[in-house]
Automatic annotation (TrEMBL), chain A:
The keyword Signal does not apply. It holds the Pfam family BPD_transp_1. The chain crosses the membrane at residues 12-31, 73-95, 107-128, 158-177, 221-244, 264-289. It is a multi-pass membrane protein. This is ABC transporter permease protein YurN. Belongs to the binding-protein-dependent transport system permease family. Gene3D superfamilies: MetI-like. The keyword Transport applies. It is found in: Cell membrane. Its main location: membrane. Keywords: Cell membrane, Membrane, Transmembrane, Transmembrane helix, Transport. InterPro entries: ABC_transporter_permease, MetI-like, MetI-like_sf.
From TrEMBL, chain B:
The chain crosses the membrane at residues 12-37, 79-101, 113-134, 154-173, 211-233, 261-279. It comes from Paenibacillus aceti. InterPro entries: BP-dep_ABC_trans_perm (IPR050901), MetI-like (IPR000515), MetI-like_sf (IPR035906). SUPFAM superfamilies: MetI-like (SSF161098). It is found in: Cell membrane. This is Sugar ABC transporter permease. Belongs to the binding-protein-dependent transport system permease family. The keyword Transmembrane helix applies. Keywords: Cell membrane, Membrane, Transmembrane, Transmembrane helix, Transport.
Length: 297, 294
């Protein structure tokens, strides 16, 4: 009897702190996002008015939001595809071939992942600097030095691709290590028999490697969407501030500015809801489209 | 003849692979290494070619960053916050993960599911609601205590960090606890150890490798974090390192103090790089063990 009571008490004391913290700092704010998207509220006053879906209709009429949407989708598509291709390529090279310094390359490629996004942003600001930046100085070796410097972060047409460059640089190593881990599980015998039958490396890659790590690839597709939305926010906040003239404004930076700086809190939360639903829907669609029969090995 | 041909094409293929690998390695090392070199350059050197090597070792940049730009005191703030957040996280997440993984009780499925769902909650969406919640709390505190206590408080910041890391940490730890055979608890119970002693003296020591992974990952994410820190610490003197660096970046645009900024940058990344060099194998293994992050 007493033991029973002791067990319950033990469970309670182990779980209670985690549950309390979880509810206060994760559950309540999340509910708040959805609830406050239906209100018109500045955030600082006590005056709130319920406006239903008005924030959403306003949002869909806003040109700024369309620009933000375009930028974000462009980043999601370009960063995901480029990172995916390079990460897969380098992962298969590093795990399939017997190379000198395999471990060295793996260690180097993972470095960007341990740096703060602020550090990466500062480094890339130096690379992209129009006058004394590394990139322009390098390019000047090939073109006449008198030509106008390229404004990597100042030109509205270029800046989004400069951002892509920094984001891909940051992400490749992470996904590469992930793909390498699942490639390591593919039995060597499959490649050996393919080799005997004269299958080329490219053929082996598409007929053995890709199908056998397909589950892992699908998981990373969801990661790509979620993390590009997040990372683009972190990079934009540290590197471009959304500029010039909104050319790099992305989903969450727009939300943060509206909710925090601009003090139209309800409107900001409506952006959050739309972005959340959008990323969820996109992940679901990709998941359905990429469904294949599961292969065993 | 045929094998000879194959042999040479094989060597050519390997050659291409090395070229690609070395190219990527250069693309990754050069910017980081360049930042280190830039941190010992004098401000005037930045007007020349950026590819030039530093003329001398100008350590004044570090003294300036440490004192004038207050990176020293920001470093202390970062150390305090990270240390508190990590200890809170371990003290709170370990027992919870253990109970969730190994005890069946009323509501255990519910709580397991809820913490799993927490994996999908994204910090960046909820940072403003958290700020307002704390701001409102401060308003009531002002009338009760006469002073605000929630915002501009390193302990509260650490608490928020710990809360943010809970779902993933519990997921990772309980995944490990589930793999242990039931016999451990049975044996401990026969020996007369209570629930608490069983957990602390029998189970925890076995979980050491997972605990190390948890500490590594969360150290990196707490140390590098800046959105929450920037939002919850509003007093200029009270900043963490990455936010201090952001400030230096902004200041550099108006008053040209490149050297000082790169010195600050090195101060932010040096601890993480040193840690990585020491434990890189654990980190990349741990990543695939946990499966997902961010």
């Amino acid at each position: 009897m007493d033991n029973r009571k002791g067990r319950g008490r033990f469970i309670f004391f182990c779980l209670a702190p985690a549950v309390i913290l979880f509810i206060i700092f994760l559950i309540i704010p999340t509910i708040d996002v959805f609830r406050m998207s239906l209100y018109k509220w500045g955030g600082y006053t006590d005056h709130k008015t319920f406006v239903g879906l008005q924030n959403f209709t306003k949002l869909f009429q806003s040109e700024k939001f369309y620009q933000t949407f375009q930028n974000s989708v462009l980043l999601i598509v370009v960063v995901s595809i480029v990172t995916f291709a390079f990460a897969l390529l380098f992962a298969s090279m590093l795990s399939r071939e017997k190379l000198i310094g395999q471990n060295f390359f793996r260690i180097i490629f993972y470095i960007p992942n341990i740096l703060s996004i602020v550090v990466i942003s500062a480094i890339f600001s130096a690379i992209y600097d129009p006058n004394n930046g590394l990139l322009n100085a390098f390019l000047n070796l090939f073109r006449s030095a008198s030509s106008d410097p390229i404004l990597w972060l100042g030109d509205q047409k270029i800046v989004i691709y400069s951002l892509c460059g920094a984001m891909v640089w940051q992400a490749i190593g992470y996904y590469m290590v992930m793909y390498m881990a699942s490639m390591a599980n593919i039995p060597e015998s499959l490649y050996e028999s393919a080799e005997l039958e004269g299958a080329s490396r490219r053929h082996q890659f598409f007929a053995i490697t890709i199908p056998l790590i397909w589950t892992n690839i699908r998981t990373t597709l969801t990661f790509f969407i979620i993390s590009t939305i997040n990372m683009s926010f972190l990079f934009v906040m540290a590197m471009t501030g959304g500029g010039p003239d909104g050319a790099t404004e992305v989903f969450l930076s727009y939300m943060y500015k509206e909710a925090y700086t601009n003090s139209s809190y309800g409107y900001g939360m409506a952006i959050g809801v739309v972005v959340f639903l959008f990323s969820f829907a996109l992940a679901a669609v990709l998941n359905a489209v990429t469904r294949r029969e599961h292969l065993e090995y | 003849m045929n094998t000879d041909h194959q042999h040479s094409s094989n060597r050519f293929y390997k050659f291409i692979i090395y070229i690609l690998l070395i190219a990527l390695a250069i693309i990754i090392i050069v910017p980081v290494g360049w930042a280190f070199l830039a941190s010992i350059k004098q401000d005037a050197e930045f007007y020349g070619s950026p590819w030039a090597l530093p003329e001398g070792i100008h350590l004044q940049n570090f003294t300036d960053a440490w004192q004038k730009a207050k990176m020293g005191s920001y470093m202390l703030n970062s150390v305090i916050t990270t240390a508190i957040a990590l200890s809170l996280l371990l003290v709170i997440a370990l027992p919870a993960a253990y109970v969730l993984a190994r005890y069946k009780f009323k509501g255990s499925t519910f709580w397991n599911m809820l913490f799993m769902a927490g994996l999908f909650i994204n910090i960046n969406y909820i940072v403003v609601p958290i700020f307002l919640m704390l701001n409102n709390g401060d308003k009531s505190m002002r009338s009760i205590l006469g002073q605000p206590i929630f915002l501009n408080n390193l302990f509260i910041l650490a608490l928020v960090y710990a809360a943010m890391a809970l779902p993933f940490t519990i997921y990772l730890l309980s995944g490990y606890f589930k793999t242990l055979p039931k016999e451990y608890e049975e044996a401990a119970s026969v020996d007369g150890a209570g629930y608490f002693r069983t957990m602390v003296q029998v189970i925890m020591p076995m979980a050491k490798p997972s605990i190390v992974t948890v500490i590594l990952f969360n150290f990196l994410s707490f140390w590098n974090e800046y959105i929450i820190s920037m939002t919850l610490l509003t007093k200029p003197g009270l900043r963490t390192l990455p936010v201090g660096l952001m400030n230096l970046m902004a200041a550099q645009k108006s008053a040209v103090q490149y050297g000082q900024m790169y010195a600050g940058l090195v101060l932010v990344m040096l601890p993480t790089l040193l840690l990585y060099i020491l434990v890189q194998k654990k980190l990349t293994q741990g990543m695939t063990m946990g499966g997902l992050k961010g």
